[in-house]
Amino acid sequence: MSTWTPSSSSRSSPRCSASRPRTTTKASLPSRKGDDRSSAVSELAASRESFRAEVARFTAVEITPNATAWDQTDPDGSYPMQLFTRLGELGWLGVGFNESLGGSGGGPVDRCILFEELAYGSAGAALGLYVHTALAAGALANIADRGLGERFVPGMLAGTTTGAWAYAEPDSGADVTQVRLAARRDGDSFVLNGSKMYITNATFADVILVVVRTSGEPGKLGGLSVLAVDGNSEGLTRSSMHKLGMRPSELAELHFENCVVPADRLVGELDKGFRQCLAVLSQGRVFAGALALGLGRAALDTTIAHVGTREQFGGPLAAKQVVRATIADMTTRLRTVRHLVYSAAEKLETGEDYDTDASIAKLVASETATWVSERCLHLHGAQGFMLESPAQRFYRDCKINEWGEGANELQREMIFEAVSRGYRP
Q1: CA-based Rg of the chain, rounded to a whole angstrom?
Q2: What is the pTM of this model?
Q3: Topology agreement, domain 26-162 and domain 165-271
Q4: Which member of 62, 250, 405, 417 is catalytic?
């Protein structure tokens, strides 16, 4: 891989010789003169495009050629664990994290670039990395006290410690207020009893960020907390779950029976977990939009290649007007998604109010990925229905985007509430 040479104004880490994004804090953009600021913005854009190209090359060599095999190896999931090591070595797990925690600098836009390009090769593989970094490591870096963050985050960004984020339960799904998993305080520990369901990475994760009820009753906003639980804790049982799509990722049901967790594993404030979960999930919607964009792009490019060579009725499919119109619509919708996702990421990066933009981006990106994947499968015909075809994989992988980080029906409710408070596009 090519070596990325940082500019004099950017920060870098000696751990990696491959491309890394520039740190993108406001302080890194000079403002003394208009020309200086324009030059800095252009330099930042060029650095990000270089980073995108580097991740795309990595994906083309190490992910895309293996995507079908990873998908078919085990219906319960068999995650390519080497990706944690490789991305840790490259410094890419640390994109968007402070260097004091072993991060590589950069910001939400850089992280969107990373997830988009990885998902272009395999949405299932990208999903595991997204949960590990954006949700698990992100919660520890942004919510936990400094000591707990320093204990876990450097290893997670190096790829030597793996993480998961667990809030869904058998009877609650996306409604975090209905969490029932009880964490009873007992001296210097919490004792956990209950279950979690549909938890990505939890089959192998070294540390699982678990949303628990420390007080109050289900249905109340208060009384929720987050604990960093060791994956091999006594009293914790992990069971693999069989799923339709995103097969390279692994999904688990967790059962806690008198599982003792030290009190110093509390992430953030006691009984304030609801707000903490909202913050984690709101950021997650931006990155989930980037995942959906990468998957949609892969479906589009696969379709373009197919219709250009597939002969029907005396000519290639690409010569048919209805097919050309479909390709145009796929392209147009994905272009819209790109704007929505990166606009939300830029707002998150600059500290603006981004919550509604994140919901819009996640909503449109996920539904567009589903529509594009369906059109891809349709235009492939019987060929696309075969397991060796990526078209059927896109179709199975896309649907989860519509309910991950809050179902799209919930996103529409949240968008309407924002409109009623004065939000306008």
Answers
A1: 22
A2: 0.90
A3: no
A4: 405
